[in-house]
Structure formats: structure tokens, C-alpha cells
């Protein structure tokens, strides 16, 4: 097993659409997370990265592929069989404003995992929730507040407290800071880093913000139209990206200082996942497209750590 | 370190709810039309509660006959005048309020009890359950409610109880529609996903996360429907399929009164005014509630 | 260069349940014709209401202006009548917003919406309204100007058929109909993906240059501001804290908040730089802190910062509102 906490093979999610079309939101994704590491999953909207998050946690059933969590395939487990496993994997959502039930107090939200999993209730739950709030840096007085009385950063801390309540091993972070202001973003990122160190957590960190991923991740996987096109250690990917899409993505990042606009490396729009082109799916937008790319679909290949799906790489 | 193992007091746990209530009261109070609605609704409830003590001639509501007093115009002794039996119209209108209140409450209550669970199930589970529930609902919605109610009363026989049953049967589909749409939207909210991610059962999600977030539109609709249900019951009374004279009921009173128009105008005008005010009051009140509970859906 | 926009001592407040929120507190900002000004700040700093104020798009009540004013091309915006406002919006000031879908009517085709806008502008300018066919040609030209392929066919399509980037281009085209002098862009690319963001920003930059527009770009993203604007205005809690040339301000920020903001942004090009949070959180504008509104979070705060509101003053080639700006060298 060599310490893989999560191993995903050939993961797919298809949605039938009107008119017999099939939307291939996730189209054959392989991922591997070693215990304690932090893997960044980056890509533009509609590339399927959030769907991967939900599949990995089995919030939605996959259409194909394997999801091995702690060595056990959970791809086809039913809700009852999943319930005990859910203690070990939790999720933080992008928008803390909608991740908390507006009708429930902070206490009720953070205590929900404890109540559902039957770990503690009553006074004991209150003590545990107070402890969790302290851990995420919120005072006890927040227990009986409602979400609308909290700032964005405070809400995200409450969400983190809820996710930590069951002491999970894997934390899926779906754009955890994109709805927050930069000064608050830095607070939350700092805190997440600290948490990973102290609790030995494993992160699947989903983001469109490359600078954030570079700061908090060990490895990064780049997704385009439902498939991973490049994967490797953070340093390698950002220093020497090999896939033209990764290069375009990095090239489009605007540094926080006066700069010239990047030469628009990519023309056109992100295509629809219902109309995935044959051959390499990136070919229609690719600046270095070759004849072969239009017919042959490149597989993710390379040495052990850095892998690319591109004929030109 | 004295970590509070003490259970928090009621006041501590609900301080935020109280703040919220104060905010609702404040925003409600800023709208004159909402306040007018509230005043009318409160007046209606008070009259319903204390009717027998307010009405100067309570026996007149039970079919007494004072033929010497027939069709007297409004005066100090009879504020609203008298009817063809010599009964005091003010007493009859006041005592009919209670009938209207329980008619409205029963119809809206039944509709909610039937419609809300169906709507939540349809919206949250989707798939076959949704298809079946929504098609049945559509069938009910495609027939004009009052026509369907008429048919049902005709089958069951006239009378106020049968009228209520008939109106309840035609009233629930509106709630299914409303709640289904809301539950459908809530189903994909991150907080519902978060609950599923910790292993919460469907029942728990429905009870704790979906239903409480559907209450605002339900309350708004129910308060507006109170007025409409009272109006519908009065309509049944008017065409002789609801309450039967001499039982005091606004619709039935107007039904008799129309033969005395226009010379004895007060006979029809005062029960009519009562209906008008009640419907207006509940509508204004419901509008006001929508503005504070559901500000986003505000007038589309 | 003449001043196109003059905001002086402008204050804006909103009355609500909990009292009066002082959202803007004495804004002084003069924008000359042809400048590209970026307004940057975090949620609640007042940058969006300031932008909306320029075209008098803030609802009053609940809003109210306890002091100060805004002049556009020498005319007092708050003294304008309906005709004057109609001319101002579109002909003087054009706005584009973060979420283009909200500003397009889903039930009408792009063409019919643009034709309506074009004809409304004709009326506002007191010219005879163009015929629909002529207006349609003008719409196609505008779509071409924002680099949308095949404008003729695009006119017959509906907003939901377009991608986010295309919709934003359509809105930019609509903003250009009245040949405005000032383009106010409020987070124009925040909802877009990075590769599309680059395309839209490039378009805005080209239009501004080609049509000699004055640009007021509102964003929370220092990168977007840095790419498009020569001048940067930093706002915090309803006040302007620093205002100066972009290269000066980014290189050597003088206000402690500007420095905090720059340090909080992770930078792809400098992986060694760890994003540093600003301690504390934004103040409650119902009871803003006395004196300098940043003092509760400021590491340099002294007694004077609590007692006295620092005015914007010239320090080291830019305007700063900080009593200790001289000591706050980077």
C-alpha cells in the first residue's frame, strides 16, 4: 500500500443531457494522495475539479472508476456503509456564507457531526464545540450566534471547526479562500498550514488561484475538461511547466504589481464538457498543436513524479 | 482553566434569535401598509375571540325572530341595522368572525399539512417521487379550484364542514409547488452537502436543514391564504353550498341580502365590508411578512 | 489636463436597523481626463458605492449624503434633473459590473437589447431616434469593436447562449454606445477564469487607449489594477488611505494598510514570500473607530491616531492619510 491514503483510478462522472448528449464532467482521472501531503488540483471553472471533490467524498456516485480510501474501494458503497468512513474525510466549501445553515447557531452547526455520528451530545458536546472553536481561534461567545452575524473569515473558521469535529484524516478544500478578502485569505491559509502540521492532515486543495496553491501544496495536478493534463511537484510545475495549458495558466496570472498584460496565450473560450473534441482535448486552443493532436488522445505519462499528457512534451 | 461545562442558559442560547426578532419587528414597523395589515388582522382575531361579549344581541345569531324590528337602517340601537328577521346585523357580523377564523385556519392548516411534506419530498428526492407528486399536483392545479370545490361539495352535500373539506382538498397543491421549488434549490446548498458529508440521514437533512429554511415562504403564503380561504368559504356560502342560515356566516348573509338590494343596502354592505377588510388585512400582513422574511423574492 | 471628475469631501451613509452606517467618510478624489485610476480595497471599504455614486446610482433613501459632493465635467451630479442624469449615464459615465448576466435581460436577444440602448441614448442626447435597422447596424459595429466574432449572428442570440467572457464583452459594447468619457468598471473580470480575464482586460486596455477614455477600475485584485492602471487609490473602511502613481505605490507603499495589503497577497513569482495576514478585522461602520479608521489594526498607531483623523497629504510623491507616513517607509 505504501501509505496511499487515497487512490483514484479512471474516475468518471457523466451526466445525461437533453437531446441524448452526454456531459463528461470528469473523464478518467487518476490521483494519489500519500498520508500527510497536500495536493493542489487547479483548473478553470467547468474543468471538473469540484466534481472530483464530491466524487472522492462520495457525495455523488461516480459513473466509473475506483476510489480507494485507506485501501478500501468506496466507489460503490451505500450511504450506510459510508457513514462510519465519513469520520475520516471532510470537506470545506468555497463560500462560507452558504456552507452554514442560516437557521442554525454556530453551536448547532459545529455539533452536527458529533450528533450524527453519535460521539457526544448535551453538555459534553458543548464542551467539545467550545474546544473546537478555540482551536480555530474563535471565542466561546460565538456559540449561540447565527451565521449572518459573522464575517466571512469567521464563518470559514466555523466551517473548519465543523470539519475538524470528527478528527478526519483527509480534508478536501474546495476553493476555501476564493470568497474571502486577501487579508483574511492569508489568515485562513496560515491557519490551514498550521493545522496540517499539528494534526497530520492530508489535503486535497482545489483552487483556481495558482499563487495560493504554490504556497500551500506539495504537489499540483492541472485539470482541463475533465482530465488531468499535468501533475508533479509544485516547484517543478511552476518552474518548468511542460503542458501548453499549464504554461498558459501560469502566464495568465497577474502579479500584484504594475505589469504589462500577458500576451493572450490562449484564444477562445473553455469548451463545453458535452462537446469534448476528439484527440487531445486541448488541441483546439493549443498554440503548439500538431497533426497528431487532432486524432490521438495523449495519456498522462512521464517519470514517477512529473507526468504530462501532451505529445509535444 | 474553568472550561464551561455548564449548560448555557436559555437567554444565552437565544440571544441571537431575540436580536433577530427585534430586527424583524423594526423592519415590519417601518412599513405603514404592513402595520395596517397587522392592525386589521389583530382586530379580526380579537373580534373572533371576544365576539360573544362584544355582540349586543348574541341570541340574534342563533335564529331569533324579532319581526317588529325588520330591516331597520343603522341606528344607535342597531349599529349595522337589522335583517329581514329583525336580527341585529352588528351582532351577526361580529359572531360570524369566529366562523371565518376557524374556516380559514382549518383550510390553510390542512393544505399545509398535506402540501408541505409532499413538496419537500418532491424537491429533495427528485426522480420518480418528484414526477409522481408533481403530476398529481398539476392535475389538481389544472382545474379551477372553486369549480372543483363546488363539485366536491355537490357530491358531499352542502354545509360548512363539507365546504371546508372541499376547499382543503383544492388548496394544498399550491403549497406543493411552493415548497418543491424551495426544496429543490436548497438540495444543492453547500450546507446540505456538508450535512451529507458528515453522514446525516435524509430524514435528518429534511427536518433540520430543508424544512426550517422553507418556513418563511410557507408563513407568507399561509398568511395571505387566510384571507383567500375565508373569501372562498364565503363564496360557497353565497351560492348556498356553505354555511346555512341562520348560522352567521358572511357569504350566506350577503346571499340572502342581495334580494334586499338596493333599498336595504346595509344588509349586504356590512358583511361585505367585513369580508373585504379581512382579505385586505391578511394580504397586507402577508406582504409585510414577505418583505422581512423573504426580502429577495420581494415582488419578483 | 482638466479635471473630469471631482469628488470633494464626499460622505455617504446608510440608515438601517442598527443606526447609521458611515460608508464613505470624506472622499477627496480628482480624476483628470485620460487617466487610468484603479481603486483597490477589501469588502466593505466603500469602493463600489463610490463608483456607483459617480453615476448617482445609489438608492436614497436608505442612503444619504451628509456632506461633500461630486462634479462631473464641472457639473454637480447631485443637482442634475432626470434629463441631465440620463445624459450623464451612458453619455458621460458608462459602467460595467462584475456579473454581466444580471445586467442582461434573459428573455430578449442581444440585438434587441442593444438596439433599445442605442435608441435610448439618441433620445437622451436630444437627437432623433435612429430607425431600428440603423440601430442594429450600429450594434453590430459595436460588437465588432469589442472583438466578438460574427456580430450579425450574435445579435440574434440570447444571453444564456453566451459564455461569461462574451457576455462581459457585450456589456462593454453597450457601455460604449453613448460614447462616454469615463468608463467605470466595477470588478469587471472577477467572475471570469484567468485565461478569459486576460482577454477581457486586454480589450478594456485597448478600448481605453483607442477611444481616449478615462478609466476608473474598481477591483480587490492588485494584479488587475497593476496591469491596467497608472494611478492607484487604496481605500479602507470608507476612506482613501493612499493615492499615487502605481509604480511608486506598489514599490514603496507608505500607508501601513497598503503595506499590509501588499504583503497579504501570495505572489506566484516570489514563492519565498509568505502571504502575511493583517491582524484584526474590518471595523463596524456603525461606530467607526475615532481618528484614523485603521488604527485598531495598525502596528504604528500612537495616541494621535486615535484622536485625530489624518488628512490626505503629500509624502514622498504620493498622497497618504497617515500621521506616521514618514516613518512607515517600506
From TrEMBL, chain A:
<keyword id="KW-0547">Nucleotide-binding</keyword>
<feature type="domain" description="ABC transporter">
    <location>
        <begin position="6"/>
        <end position="250"/>
    </location>
</feature>
<dbReference type="GO" id="GO:0015833">
    <property type="term" value="P:peptide transport"/>
</dbReference>
<dbReference type="InterPro" id="IPR003593">
    <property type="entry name" value="AAA+_ATPase"/>
</dbReference>
<keyword id="KW-0067">ATP-binding</keyword>
<dbReference type="GO" id="GO:0055085">
    <property type="term" value="P:transmembrane transport"/>
</dbReference>
<dbReference type="InterPro" id="IPR050319">
    <property type="entry name" value="ABC_transp_ATP-bind"/>
</dbReference>
<dbReference type="Pfam" id="PF00005">
    <property type="entry name" value="ABC_tran"/>
</dbReference>
<dbReference type="InterPro" id="IPR003439">
    <property type="entry name" value="ABC_transporter-like_ATP-bd"/>
</dbReference>
<dbReference type="GO" id="GO:0005524">
    <property type="term" value="F:ATP binding"/>
</dbReference>
<dbReference type="Pfam" id="PF08352">
    <property type="entry name" value="oligo_HPY"/>
</dbReference>
<comment type="similarity">
    <text>Belongs to the ABC transporter superfamily.</text>
</comment>
<dbReference type="InterPro" id="IPR017871">
    <property type="entry name" value="ABC_transporter-like_CS"/>
</dbReference>
<dbReference type="InterPro" id="IPR013563">
    <property type="entry name" value="Oligopep_ABC_C"/>
</dbReference>
<dbReference type="InterPro" id="IPR027417">
    <property type="entry name" value="P-loop_NTPase"/>
</dbReference>
From TrEMBL, chain B:
<dbReference type="GO" id="GO:0005886">
    <property type="term" value="C:plasma membrane"/>
</dbReference>
<dbReference type="InterPro" id="IPR035906">
    <property type="entry name" value="MetI-like_sf"/>
</dbReference>
<comment type="similarity">
    <text>Belongs to the binding-protein-dependent transport system permease family.</text>
</comment>
<dbReference type="Pfam" id="PF12911">
    <property type="entry name" value="OppC_N"/>
</dbReference>
<dbReference type="GO" id="GO:0055085">
    <property type="term" value="P:transmembrane transport"/>
</dbReference>
<keyword id="KW-1133">Transmembrane helix</keyword>
<feature type="transmembrane region" description="Helical">
    <location>
        <begin position="226"/>
        <end position="243"/>
    </location>
</feature>
<protein>
    <submittedName>
        <fullName>D,D-dipeptide ABC transporter permease</fullName>
    </submittedName>
</protein>
<keyword id="KW-1003">Cell membrane</keyword>
<keyword id="KW-0813">Transport</keyword>
<dbReference type="GO" id="GO:0015031">
    <property type="term" value="P:protein transport"/>
</dbReference>
<keyword id="KW-0571">Peptide transport</keyword>
<keyword id="KW-0653">Protein transport</keyword>
<feature type="transmembrane region" description="Helical">
    <location>
        <begin position="139"/>
        <end position="172"/>
    </location>
</feature>
<keyword id="KW-0812">Transmembrane</keyword>
Automatic annotation (TrEMBL), chain C:
<dbReference type="GO" id="GO:0005524">
    <property type="term" value="F:ATP binding"/>
</dbReference>
<dbReference type="GO" id="GO:0015833">
    <property type="term" value="P:peptide transport"/>
</dbReference>
<dbReference type="InterPro" id="IPR003439">
    <property type="entry name" value="ABC_transporter-like_ATP-bd"/>
</dbReference>
<dbReference type="InterPro" id="IPR027417">
    <property type="entry name" value="P-loop_NTPase"/>
</dbReference>
<keyword id="KW-0472">Membrane</keyword>
<dbReference type="GO" id="GO:0055085">
    <property type="term" value="P:transmembrane transport"/>
</dbReference>
<dbReference type="GO" id="GO:0016887">
    <property type="term" value="F:ATP hydrolysis activity"/>
</dbReference>
<dbReference type="InterPro" id="IPR003593">
    <property type="entry name" value="AAA+_ATPase"/>
</dbReference>
<dbReference type="GO" id="GO:0005886">
    <property type="term" value="C:plasma membrane"/>
</dbReference>
<protein>
    <submittedName>
        <fullName>Methionine ABC transporter ATP-binding protein</fullName>
    </submittedName>
</protein>
<dbReference type="InterPro" id="IPR017871">
    <property type="entry name" value="ABC_transporter-like_CS"/>
</dbReference>
<keyword id="KW-0547">Nucleotide-binding</keyword>
<keyword id="KW-0813">Transport</keyword>
<comment type="similarity">
    <text>Belongs to the ABC transporter superfamily.</text>
</comment>
<keyword id="KW-0067">ATP-binding</keyword>
Amino acid at each position: 500500500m505504501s501509505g496511499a491514503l487515497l487512490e483514484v483510478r479512471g474516475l468518471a462522472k457523466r451526466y445525461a443531457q437533453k437531446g441524448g448528449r452526454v456531459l463528461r464532467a470528469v473523464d478518467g482521472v487518476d490521483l494519489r494522495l500519500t498520508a500527510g501531503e497536500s495536493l493542489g488540483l487547479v483548473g478553470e471553472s467547468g474543468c471538473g475539479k469540484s466534481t472530483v471533490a464530491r466524487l472522492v467524498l462520495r457525495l455523488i456516485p461516480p459513473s466509473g472508476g475506483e476510489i480507494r480510501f485507506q485501501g478500501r474501494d468506496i466507489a460503490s458503497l451505500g450511504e450506510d456503509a459510508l457513514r462510519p468512513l465519513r469520520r475520516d474525510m471532510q470537506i470545506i466549501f468555497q463560500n462560507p456564507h452558504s456552507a452554514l445553515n442560516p437557521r442554525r447557531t454556530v453551536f448547532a452547526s459545529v455539533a452536527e457531526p458529533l450528533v450524527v455520528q453519535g460521539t457526544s451530545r448535551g453538555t459534553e458536546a458543548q464542551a467539545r464545540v467550545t474546544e473546537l472553536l478555540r482551536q480555530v481561534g474563535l471565542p466561546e461567545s460565538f456559540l449561540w450566534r447565527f451565521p449572518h452575524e459573522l464575517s466571512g473569515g469567521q464563518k470559514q473558521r466555523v466551517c473548519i471547526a465543523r470539519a475538524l469535529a470528527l478528527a478526519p484524516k483527509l480534508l478536501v478544500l474546495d476553493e476555501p479562500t476564493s470568497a474571502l478578502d486577501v487579508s483574511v485569505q492569508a489568515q485562513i491559509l496560515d491557519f490551514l498550514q498550521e493545522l496540517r502540521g499539528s494534526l497530520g492532515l492530508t489535503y486535497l486543495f482545489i483552487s483556481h488561484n495558482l499563487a495560493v496553491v504554490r504556497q500551500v501544496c506539495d504537489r499540483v495536478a492541472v485539470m482541463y475538461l475533465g482530465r488531468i493534463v499535468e501533475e508533479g511537484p509544485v516547484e517543478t510545475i511552476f518552474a518548468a511547466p511542460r503542458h501548453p495549458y499549464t504554461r498558459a495558466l501560469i502566464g495568465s496570472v497577474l502579479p500584484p504589481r504594475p505589469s504589462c498584460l500577458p500576451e493572450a496565450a490562449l484564444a477562445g473560450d473553455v469548451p463545453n464538457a458535452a462537446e469534448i473534441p476528439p484527440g487531445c482535448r486541448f488541441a483546439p486552443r493549443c498554440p503548439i498543436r500538431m497533426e497528431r493532436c487532432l486524432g490521438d488522445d495523449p495519456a498522462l505519462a512521464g517519470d514517477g513524479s512529473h507526468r504530462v499528457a501532451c505529445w509535444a512534451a | 482553566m474553568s472550561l464551561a461545562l455548564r449548560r448555557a442558559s436559555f437567554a444565552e442560547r437565544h440571544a441571537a434569535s431575540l436580536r433577530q426578532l427585534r430586527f424583524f419587528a423594526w423592519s415590519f414597523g417601518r412599513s405603514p401598509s404592513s402595520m395596517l395589515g397587522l392592525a386589521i388582522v389583530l382586530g379580526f382575531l380579537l373580534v373572533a375571540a371576544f365576539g360573544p361579549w362584544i355582540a349586543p344581541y348574541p341570541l340574534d345569531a342563533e335564529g331569533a325572530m324579532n319581526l317588529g324590528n325588520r330591516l331597520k337602517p343603522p341606528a344607535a340601537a342597531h349599529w349595522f341595522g337589522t335583517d329581514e328577521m329583525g336580527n341585529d346585523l352588528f351582532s351577526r357580523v361580529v359572531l360570524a368572525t369566529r366562523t371565518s377564523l376557524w374556516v380559514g385556519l382549518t383550510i390553510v392548516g390542512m393544505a399545509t399539512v398535506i402540501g408541505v411534506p409532499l413538496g419537500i419530498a418532491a424537491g429533495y428526492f427528485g426522480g420518480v417521487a418528484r414526477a409522481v407528486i408533481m403530476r398529481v399536483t398539476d392535475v389538481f392545479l389544472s382545474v379551477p379550484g372553486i369549480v372543483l370545490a363546488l363539485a366536491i361539495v355537490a357530491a358531499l352535500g352542502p354545509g360548512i364542514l363539507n365546504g371546508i373539506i372541499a376547499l382543503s382538498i383544492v388548496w394544498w397543491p399550491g403549497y406543493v409547488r411552493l415548497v418543491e421549488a424551495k426544496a429543490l434549490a436548497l438540495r444543492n446548498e453547500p450546507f446540505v452537502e456538508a450535512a451529507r458529508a458528515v453522514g446525516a440521514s435524509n430524514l435528518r437533512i429534511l427536518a433540520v436543514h430543508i424544512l426550517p429554511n422553507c418556513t418563511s415562504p410557507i408563513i407568507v403564503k399561509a398568511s395571505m391564504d387566510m384571507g383567500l380561504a375565508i373569501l372562498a368559504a364565503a363564496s360557497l356560502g353565497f351560492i348556498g353550498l356553505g354555511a346555512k342560515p341562520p348560522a352567521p356566516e358572511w357569504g350566506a348573509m350577503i346571499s340572502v341580502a342581495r334580494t334586499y338590494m338596493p333599498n336595504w343596502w346595509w344588509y349586504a354592505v356590512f358583511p361585505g365590508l367585513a369580508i373585504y377588510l379581512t382579505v385586505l388585512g391578511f394580504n397586507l400582513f402577508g406582504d409585510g411578512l414577505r418583505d422581512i422574511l423573504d426580502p429577495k423574492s420581494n415582488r419578483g | 489636463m482638466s479635471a473630469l471628475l471631482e469628488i470633494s469631501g464626499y460622505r455617504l451613509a446608510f440608515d438601517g436597523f442598527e443606526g447609521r452606517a458611515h460608508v464613505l467618510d470624506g472622499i477627496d478624489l480628482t480624476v483628470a481626463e485620460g487617466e487610468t485610476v484603479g481603486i483597490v480595497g477589501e469588502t466593505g471599504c466603500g469602493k463600489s458605492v463610490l463608483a456607483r455614486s459617480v453615476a448617482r446610482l445609489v438608492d436614497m433613501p436608505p442612503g444619504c449624503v451628509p456632506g461633500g459632493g461630486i462634479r462631473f465635467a464641472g457639473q454637480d451630479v447631485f443637482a442634475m434633473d432626470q434629463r441631465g442624469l440620463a445624459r450623464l449615464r451612458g453619455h458621460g459615465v458608462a459602467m460595467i459590473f462584475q456579473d454581466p448576466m444580471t445586467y442582461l435581460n434573459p428573455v430578449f436577444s442581444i440585438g434587441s437589447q442593444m438596439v433599445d440602448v442605442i435608441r435610448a441614448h439618441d433620445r437622451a442626447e436630444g437627437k432623433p431616434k435612429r430607425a431600428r435597422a440603423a440601430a442594429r447596424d450600429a450594434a453590430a459595429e459595436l460588437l465588432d469593436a469589442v472583438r466578438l466574432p460574427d456580430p450579425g449572428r450574435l445579435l440574434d442570440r440570447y444571453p444564456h447562449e453566451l459564455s461569461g467572457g462574451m457576455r462581459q464583452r457585450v456589456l462593454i459594447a453597450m457601455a460604449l454606445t453613448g460614447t462616454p468619457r469615463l468608463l467605470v468598471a466595477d470588478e469587471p473580470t472577477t467572475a471570469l477564469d484567468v485565461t478569459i480575464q486576460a482577454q477581457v482586460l486586454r480589450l478594456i486596455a485597448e478600448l481605453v487607449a483607442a477611444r481616449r477614455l478615462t478609466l476608473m477600475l474598481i477591483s480587490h485584485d492588485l494584479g488587475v489594477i497593476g496591469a491596467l492602471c497608472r494611478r492607484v487609490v487604496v481605500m479602507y473602511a470608507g476612506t482613501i488611505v493612499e493615492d499615487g502613481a502605481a509604480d511608486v505605490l506598489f514599490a514603496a507603499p507608505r500607508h501601513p494598510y497598503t503595506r499590509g495589503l501588499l504583503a497579504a497577497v501570495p505572489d506566484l513569482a516570489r514563492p519565498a514570500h509568505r502571504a502575511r495576514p493583517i491582524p484584526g478585522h474590518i471595523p463596524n461602520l456603525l461606530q467607526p473607530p475615532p481618528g484614523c479608521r485603521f488604527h485598531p489594526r495598525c502596528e504604528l498607531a500612537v495616541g494621535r491616531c486615535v484622536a485625530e483623523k489624518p488628512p490626505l497629504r503629500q509624502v514622498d510623491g504620493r498622497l497618504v492619510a497617515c500621521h506616521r507616513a514618514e516613518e512607515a517607509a517600506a
